[in-house]
Amino acid sequence: MFFYRSKWLQNSSIVVQPCSVVERVVSLPLVSSTYGLVSSVYANTKDNHPYLKTACEVAEQGVRTITSVALNTASPILDKLEPQIAIANDLACKGLDRIEKTLPILHHPSEQVCTGRMSRLANTGFRLCPMLKTW
């Protein structure tokens, strides 16, 4: 399934480019960097804790199985709903355009966002634990 959206350029010409709201959200620096951090912690936890690794692998296999069954079952329905899905995707892309303009923080990696927030908190005298003199 390919979706397209029109984008106005400054010289009033229109460029048609592929648009999938899911692909756009995943490609946002804040989302992709956060996903990378969480994936790293997850993999590290599995490597360091054998019992958790076993439980996680069982859960992962269950998710793969359920996803496969759901995809096979939903494919005919999705084919019939493709025009409605395209409209919903286009509206979601337009909404994401507005959100990206409103929240420029989405275009920064999570490390930069956290560092900036922590330094602002430190400058206000906020302490994570009142008993501690420092962070």
Task: Describe the fold and architecture.
The protein contains five helices and two strands; from the N terminus they run ββααααα. By secondary structure, the chain is mainly alpha-helical. β1 and β2 (14-18) form a beta hairpin. α2 (29-48) crosses α3. The chain starts with a strand and ends in a 12-residue tail after the last helix.
Average pLDDT metric: 83
Residue fraction in strands? 5-15%
What is the CA-based Rg, rounded?
21 Å
| Termini separation | 49 Å
Indicate the percent of residues in helices. 55-70%
Major pleated sheet: 2 strands, antiparallel
Secondary structure class reads mainly alpha
How are the strands ordered across the major sheet?
A: 1-2
What sort of overall outline do the alpha carbons produce when their principal axes are compared?
flat
Strand tally, please?
Answer: 2
Main location: other
Protein name: Perilipin 2
Organism: Neogobius melanostomus (round goby)
Subcellular location: Lipid droplet
Structure at a glance:
The chain is mostly helical and 135 residues long. The chain contains 5 helices and 2 strands; from the N terminus they run ββααααα. Keywords: Lipid droplet.
List keywords for this structure.
lipid droplet; Perilipin 2; mainly alpha; two-stranded antiparallel sheet; Perilipin; disordered N terminus; 135 residues; flat
Write the layout of secondary structure elements.
Layout (H helix, E strand, L loop, with lengths): L3 E5 L5 E5 L2 H7 L1 H20 L1 H31 L1 H21 L7 H14 L12
Antiparallel strand pairs: 1-2
